[in-house]
Amino acid sequence: MTPFGERDREELASFLRGVLGARRVEIQPGPDTSRVRIALYDKHDQLESLLEFERACLERAELADLRGYLARPLVRRRIREAGPRGFAVPSAEIGAPPSRP
């Protein structure tokens, strides 16, 4: 498994534009260092949806895991319903669990 990198961020942004219909996607630090926010903007450049990930989740996840989770119809509906208030992505549901010694 390779860590989630800059190329993955670009591919994830492209995926979100296609699946959720966002015109613009910004990946930015969250309010604290343990979180990452992904803001999705509509065609009028208004914040449409906000996703909040634990940084550890993005660091261990593979792009395919993220795409698979975010493409689920129920997840897409929850993201849209949460809108700009933000949808906290449950990190336990994405990717392999952290390895233990």
Description:
With 101 residues, the protein is an alpha+beta fold. The protein has one domain. It contains 4 helices and 4 strands. The chain has helices at 6-20, 55-60, 63-70, 73-82, and strands at 24-29, 35-41, 47-54, 87-88. Strands 1-2-3-4 form a 4-stranded mixed beta sheet. The longest helix is centred in the first third of the chain and has 15 residues, at 6-20. The protein is globular and about 35 Å long. It starts with 5 loop residues before the first helix and ends in a 13-residue tail after the last strand.
Entry keywords:
101 residues, alpha+beta, 4-stranded mixed β-sheet, 4 strands, 23% strand
Query: What is the end-to-end distance?
Result: 17 Å
Number of helices: 4
Tell me the number of structural domains.
Answer: 1
Largest sheet: 4 strands, mixed
Radius of gyration equals 13 Å
The dominant shape is globular
How do the strands of the widest beta sheet line up side by side?
1-2-3-4
Q: Poorly predicted ranges (pLDDT <50, ≥5 residues)? A: none
Q: Helix share of residues?
A: 25-40%
Tell me, rounded to a whole number, the average pLDDT: 85
Order of helices and strands: HEEEHHHE
Quaternary status: single chain
Total count of strands:
4
- Structure classification: alpha+beta
Strand fraction: 15-25%
